[in-house]
Design goal:
The protein has about 280 residues and is an all-alpha fold. It is built from eleven helices and no strands. It folds into two domains: about 190 residues, no CATH class; about 70 residues, no CATH class.
């Protein structure tokens, strides 16, 4: 078990996630796949640790503070999505919005009640390291400190208790973001149905131009204070303009190696707006 293996594991998970569409018609299938995939990843990590252990304390802290919470939180996240979507009402848009809003409020209430005031939440958010040995190495659970009863049930060879708590926090943050997106999708759908027009909204530029715009919005933090992932922003644009972006990640890397300008479309937008301003339009 090494940090290099940890990075490789995270890269492999990212690769699988990059394949997801977040299309409402496919999300149950995708969430089920990711739950199964991440379960196997976590089982493999457990096997490696129990068999080979850690080479030093720094490696153990890295695993329980960084790597395992990233894997476990996403496993919890996709499992929750699967449960939420399989129980969602197959009915009107209004009822669906009420369903997701209810779930969003539940996640928000649990987050505020159980996590925000917790010791591990404050420690994690402040990026402290002074208690890493206590929180992220095995065999340091103090049952007299009033820890949750889950501490008696966890596998002490593969958990420090606090890595589980941190995973729950990260999972809740991901789920809140997902439910917010689902509500936004339904709002857009409702709005679109209310528009009486025979002309659909179509993206008139190239798909590469759209990818450039998506990355600019992400890099600037213009959407959700920068917390919305690239693939989710891309899905929203694809859904809204009814366009398919085949490989956003590789398109972006091709843009980085352009000879003339790496921001051709953004340059064009800037010039078009300035030209429009110069015409002194009246409204």
């Amino acid at each position: 078990m090494t940090k290099l293996n940890g990075k490789t594991t995270q890269d492999l998970i990212f690769k699988e996630e990059s394949k997801l569409t977040l299309d409402p018609s496919l999300i149950i299938k995708e969430a089920k796949y990711m739950t199964t995939y991440l379960s196997r990843v976590l089982a493999k990590q457990k096997e490696l640790i129990i068999t080979h252990g850690f080479s030093n304390q720094e490696e153990e802290i890295y695993f329980f503070k960084i790597l395992k919470p990233k894997i476990l939180s996403k496993l919890m996240y996709y499992n929750k999505i699967y449960k939420i979507e399989t129980h969602s009402p197959n009915t009107t848009c209004k009822t669906l919005k009420e369903y997701y809003l209810k779930k969003l409020k539940q996640v928000s209430s649990e987050y505020k009640l159980y996590y925000i005031n917790s010791e591990i939440y404050k420690y994690y958010k402040s990026q402290r390291t002074d208690k890493d040995k206590e929180y992220y190495t095995r065999g340091n659970i103090d049952i007299l400190k009033g820890v949750n009863s889950i501490a008696f049930e966890i596998d002490h060879q593969f958990s420090t208790y606090y890595d589980y708590k941190l995973s729950r926090i990260l999972s809740s943050e991901l789920l809140y973001e997902y439910l917010s997106i689902r509500l936004n999708q339904l709002t857009i759908t409702t709005f679109s149905k209310d528009i009486t027009t025979t002309t659909p909204l179509l993206w008139s530029e190239s798909s590469t131009a759209l990818v450039e715009l998506i990355y600019a919005l992400y890099a600037s933090g213009a959407i959700n204070q920068g917390d919305l992932e690239i693939r989710k922003i891309a899905y929203l644009f694809q859904n809204y303009f009814n366009i398919t972006l085949s490989d956003v990640h590789h398109t972006f890397h091709r843009m980085k190696t352009r000879n003339y300008s790496r921001t051709i479309f953004l340059d064009k937008l800037k010039k078009s707006l300035e030209d429009y301003m110069d015409k002194d339009h009246e409204f």
